[in-house]
């Protein structure tokens, strides 16, 4: 039996607003196993991005419990949450969130820098990963000189190079054309297959849903369906 990477129990997120509060997430309970490749789908406003932010500790639930690797994060201090994200979680955002003054290589090694990894080791790991995901030769380019697909690959490299247990990807293909989306998903599947990294996406992209091993559909902040898909090509 595989370990549990993520578990949520009766999680709510309510935003105060006049005249009526907004219930962005309403009593969501789910469990994601280590090494899984899961998509949370749903229309805009369904709560999928909010759930991703809650699981990543970027925002706190109004009530309910969240566990990462059997550690409850709900009551953690901001400092402890930041340390957990640095050590255990990688983020991929649809807006890439690359630092424009840094090169592709410097952006990708940023998490390792924060962890205090020596320069030679950082460069070795990033260059090895760039070779695997088709960024070889682009190390010294800054984000403004990269295509959208290349920037998103750099963002993925930054997320995975430190070998996090969990990757949270928020609409990672939203700004990419079909070819770049397919290439990026190939990279993520390879990383999942080779390293056993757990992936949890929020998406409304049919291509991501088709590639996922499990599809959770959210509507109005609640789970409408949760289906296991058997055709995924990654590790069992």
In words, what does this structure look like?
By secondary structure, the protein is α/β, with parallel strands linked by helices. It has a single domain (4-228), classed as P-loop containing nucleotide triphosphate hydrolases (Rossmann fold). 34% of the residues lie in helices and 28% in strands. It has eight helices and ten strands. The strands form two sheets. It has a six-stranded mixed sheet with strand order 6-7-8-3-9-10, sandwiched between helices. A four-stranded antiparallel sheet has the order 2-1-4-5, covered by helices on one side. α6 packs parallel to α7. The longest helix has 18 residues, at 178-195. The radius of gyration is 17 Å and the shape is globular. The chain starts with a strand and ends in an 8-residue tail after the last strand.
Task: List its salient traits.
single chain; 236 residues; alpha/beta; Rossmann fold; six-stranded mixed beta sheet; four-stranded antiparallel beta sheet; 8 helices; 34% helix; disordered C terminus
CATH H-tier superfamily: P-loop containing nucleotide triphosphate hydrolases
The number of domains is 1
Task: Report the portion of residues in β strands.
Answer: 25-35%
Q: Could you give the order of strands across the largest sheet?
A: 6-7-8-3-9-10
Element string (H = helix, E = strand): EEEHEEHEHHHHEHEHEE
């Amino acid at each position: 039996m595989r370990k549990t990477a993520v578990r949520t129990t009766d999680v709510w997120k309510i935003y105060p607003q006049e005249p009526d509060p907004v219930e962005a997430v309403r009593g969501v309970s789910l469990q994601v196993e280590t090494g899984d490749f899961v998509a949370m789908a749903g229309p805009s406003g369904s709560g999928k991005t909010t759930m991703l932010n809650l699981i990543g500790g970027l925002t706190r639930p109004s009530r309910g419990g969240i566990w990462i690797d059997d550690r409850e994060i709900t009551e953690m201090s901001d400092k402890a949450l930041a340390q957990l994200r640095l050590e255990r979680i990688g983020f991929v955002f649809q807006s890439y969130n690359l630092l424009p003054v840094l090169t592709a290589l410097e952006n990708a090694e940023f998490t390792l820098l924060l962890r205090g990894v020596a320069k030679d080791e950082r460069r070795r790991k990033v260059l090895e990963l760039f070779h695997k995901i088709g960024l070889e030769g682009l190390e010294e380019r800054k984000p403004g000189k990269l295509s959208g697909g290349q920037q998103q690959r750099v963002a993925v490299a930054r997320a995975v190079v430190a070998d996090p247990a969990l990757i949270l990807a928020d609409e990672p293909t939203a700004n990419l054309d079909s070819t770049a989306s397919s290439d990026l998903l190939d990279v993520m599947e390879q990383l999942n297959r080779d390293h056993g990294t757990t992936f949890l996406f929020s998406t409304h992209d049919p291509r991501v849903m088709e590639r996922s091993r499990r599809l959770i559909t959210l509507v109005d902040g609640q789970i409408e369906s949760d289906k296991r898909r058997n055709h995924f090509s990654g590790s069992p």
